[in-house]
Amino acid sequence: MALLTRDQILQANDIQSRIIAVPEWGGEVRVRGLTGTERDRYEASLLQERKGGGYKQNLRNARTRLVVLGCVDEQGRRLFNDGDIEALAARSAAALERVFAAIREMSGMTEADIEELTENFGEAAGDDSYSA
After folding, report:
1. What are the structural domain ranges in the chain?
2. pLDDT digits (tens, 9 = 90+) for 57-116
3. Residue 38's pLDDT is what?
4. pLDDT tens digits, residue range 24-44?
5. Cα 21 from chain centroid?
6. DSSP line for 96-114
């Protein structure tokens, strides 16, 4: 295997997408892996700054926030915007989990990655505030 040049890396079409069946929604959805910027944004959304300093867990709608970032149309444009989080979170948990798992896998994220980000923070997942 040859060493890649800067230009080859920057021009690579490296974001995977695929169509997955979501029977609870009556059809299929195109999902894609996140960019580095989107993954950083998502991971940062799992933490919330405390008023006195430090951070606490922010797991409210964590699956839905990832689904919002990774569901795309045929042109690769996001289907949902951040304002759709609450409405989408009211959909089937099984459907959201299926879509979440596909996006997480295509983004190179493991459950251990998410646990590592939040393991040292004591607040419960039910915190009412979050940022998407």
Report:
1. 17-118
2. 888 999 999 999 999 999 999 999 999 999 999 999 999 999 999 999 999 998 777 667
3. 95
4. 999 999 999 999 999 999 999
5. 18
6. HHHHHHHHHHHTT--HHHH
Residue 5 class from Cβ within 10 Å (0-12 exposed, 13-18 middle, 19+ buried)? exposed
Q: Which amino acid is at 79?
A: L
The bridge status of strand 27-32 relative to strand 55-57 is unpaired
The CATH architecture one would assign to domain 17-118 is 2-Layer Sandwich (3.30)
Kindly write down the DSSP assignment for every residue of 32-98, as one continuous string.
Answer: EPPPHHHHHHHHHHTEEE-TTSSEEE--TTHHHHHHHHHEE-TTS-BS--GGGHHHHHTS-HHHHHH
